[in-house]
Design goal:
single chain, about 375 residues, alpha+beta, Nuclear Transport Factor 2, Chain: A, 6-stranded mixed β-sheet, 16 helices, elongated
Length: about 375
């Protein structure tokens, strides 16, 4: 009797929570998602199966990296199947989480035309049965084509060297020049064929006005650019500080090949004397990476030069908030307060920069002048 009562209780709970006596199985879930997706080829032949797999209650979220929101699915009145033009599709499922009548599925879909992978999508969906037939009721997908890829990548297949390169650039962008120099020296020693390994050295000697060492490093880097990408070549050639117009030309050319690169946009905007144009150059970088220190720092100065002090303050405050241990963030905030006429706050910021790193003697000098 007790066993029968327990069985009845389990069945009752199963119906109340999951809505049916027989929960979904992983096998049928996997089969449905794979087959319904891989059948979306052949133009008109794909149409009926596609719509038969979709619930009237479907809510989907396409490319959530955009500033959009989930939407209810609305079936078009006519569909001639012209968007099902791929000749094959491959589905790989990574995880199936069963929830009684429902299952959450995560995986990747690759669409192919003539053997070429044309679309790569990571997805997550929820499926269930409606009147005995499997249906999608929630779907979110993010396509690789929407991701930023046009960066100033180093010409190396060594992942540790690539990581060291981007760490060096992070130091450069925050004007931690001594740190960047050490990283650059180390990277040059690790890979003596990598032209952009010299970037930290070039910035250090440029900003310390050591023309002899700058020329030496520049010539070494240039000697290695035959194996570099166009973006790498142009950024190296931009360190020809003997001619500002040549420098600007090469930065603009580098940005053509690496349009998503925050470093390139920042230094090009910094070199641009027209504040409004500099803001236009850098705004796409800020929209993509609104917490990046260098982007906010340069925008702060350009808005300040354009007389937009409120916006300048906002960007300097973001920089300071995210990079609270970086001397340059305090030095920049000091420059803002100095221009705003608040000498007390400006001095406090300059001294904080010097306190964090006593090599920041320029901050100390600015504080002493106040």
């Amino acid at each position: 009797m007790k066993k029968n009562l327990l069985t009845l209780l389990f069945v009752t709970l199963n119906i109340a929570v999951f809505g049916q006596k027989k929960p979904l199985t992983e096998t049928e879930v996997r089969s449905f998602v794979i087959n319904s997706t891989e059948a979306q080829v052949g133009y008109k032949a794909a149409v009926d199966g596609y719509y038969n797999s979709i619930s009237d209650q479907l809510i989907f979220w396409g490319n959530p990296v955009w500033k959009n929101k989930p939407m209810s699915f609305k079936k078009p009145k006519n569909d001639d199947g012209n968007r099902f033009f791929e000749d094959s599709i491959q589905v790989e499922i990574y995880d199936v989480f069963l929830m009684g009548d429902y299952a959450n599925v995560m995986g990747t879909v690759k669409w192919y035309i003539s053997g070429a992978n044309t679309t790569h999508r990571n997805f997550s969906c929820i499926v269930t049965k409606e009147k005995g037939q499997m249906k999608y009721i929630r779907y979110v997908g993010a396509d690789y084509s929407e991701a930023a890829t046009h960066f100033l990548w180093p010409s190396t297949k060594n992942k540790s060297h690539e990581t060291a390169y981007f760490d060096m650039r992070e130091a450069m962008m925050n004007l931690e020049n001594t740190k960047a120099l050490k990283m650059s020296d180390s990277l040059v020693a690790l890979d003596n064929t990598l032209a952009v390994a010299h970037l930290g050295q070039l910035q250090y000697y440029q900003m310390s006005n050591n023309q002899t060492k700058l020329d030496e490093c520049y010539n070494l880097a240039v000697s290695k650019i035959d194996n570099a990408t166009p973006a790498e070549r142009h950024v190296i050639l931009s360190f020809n500080t003997h001619d500002a117009a040549v420098t600007k030309y090469h930065l603009e050319q580098a940005l053509i090949y690496a349009s998503d690169d925050l470093y390139l946009r920042s230094i090009l905007a910094y070199a641009e004397e027209d504040a409004k144009k500099a803001i236009q150059i850098l705004t796409p970088a800020w929209e993509r990476a609104p917490e990046n220190g260098c982007v906010n720092n340069v925008l702060g100065y350009k808005y300040m030069a354009d007389g937009q002090m409120d916006k300048a303050k906002m960007h300097f405050e973001i920089y300071l908030r995210v990079y609270a241990s970086t001397p340059n963030a305090y030095d920049s905030m000091g420059d803002f307060y100095s221009k705003a006429g608040d000498k007390q706050k400006a001095k406090a910021m300059y001294l904080k920069a010097y306190e964090l790193d006593n090599s920041w003697t320029s901050s100390k000098r600015k504080a002493d002048k106040l």
